[in-house]
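Structure catalogue
Derive tokens from sequence
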Amino acid sequence: EHNFCRCSICIQDIAAIGLNSVKPMDSSNRLERIMTNSGIKKNRKVEEAAENIRKEIIKAIALVNAAPHH
């Protein structure tokens, strides 16, 4: 578990920084379902996206923790 300030300002900063750092998905869920032939491929893509989000959130926590806006 990461120790960081959980006030609303820090949480919002972490979310904004973390999610702005994630590469955008190229398709919507509906389009992806239509275009994906295999559930395995889709699951792998979702797992990779979730892992990338986790990594960016951890980086954002460190960044906000080092210089909080309050």
